[in-house]
Amino acid sequence: MSSVLRPAVPGQDPLTEPSRMGxxxxxxxxxxxxxxxxxxxxxxxxxISSHLAITPPVSVVIPAMNEAENLPYVFxxxxxxxxxxxxxxxxxxxxxxxxxxxxxxxxxxVKQVGxxxxxxxxxxxxxxxxxxxxxxxxxxxxxxxxxxxxxxxLVSGADFAKGSRFANGGGTxxxxxxxxxxxxxxxxxxxxxxxxxxxxxxxxxxxxxxHCLDKVSLDCTGFEIETLMxxxxxxxxxxxxxxxxxxxxxxxxxxxxxxxxDGLRVLKVxxxxxxxxxxxRRRPTAIGxxxxxxxxS
Length: 297
Hints:
Elements: H1 21-29, H2 35-42, E1 46-47, E2 53-54, E3 58-64, H3 71-77, E4 84-89, H4 96-103, E5 108-111, H5 117-127, E6 132-135, H6 147-155, E7 160-164, E8 171-172, H7 177-194, E9 206-209, H8 225-235, E10 240-244, E11 246-247, H9 259-274
Parallel strand pairs: 3-4, 3-6, 4-5, 7-10, 8-11
Antiparallel strand pairs: 1-2, 6-9, 7-9
Helix pairs in contact: 3-4, 7-9, 8-9
């Protein structure tokens, strides 16, 4: 999938008619465009800043379980130019779904069938209709305004835009010294075993073109899904660009992440992936993009 960056045209609203990938190909093939034609083409783009506009629709996937108190902060930072928000509800017992619908009336709610963050993300990916998918946590630790940086990396040529708290310009308010050390060790192992050059491994703020799901099998249910994705995009030969990101403290509630338990699960995934050739992996039909995993409302 390729895309084109163009300046937004002053005085014109790119959202006056639906985004069409066909308009991108048509405009790219023409060396010159009349004033009338320029207005038609500009209408196919959605503005992301005063200088840039894009045509691919962007879906944001938010896995959430009992995050009603945090969602107002999460949704407040989301840019209004995104195509859709997909909230995967992990059988919440609070008002998570009701709050999400109040904050974003067009939100697409997916009821999670299984358990775990990995299962929730896979369910959310299956429900996305956008060409670009962004993963955002529901605890308020991610700044939605950073999405523009991820999308910019993708439309500039990357297949997978990987958030990094340790790249130049990134940071974290949430990680303890022990977790930082564990993340560094696991990241070093992945870099050595798979030829990657990551500065961060266990971070859930990432974005990618939807077509990448056809090349990367996702078959785990827990927090280790982030590591699995990072490994398999490298094994698939996809173009990866790290995006500096700042991780803030969870606003309300307690995280389900357990450093030792989940660290061991990540290590197990790393060891297992080293012995699996790309051609030997089978894609489970249960997690295919076109297979629904939960009710959507």
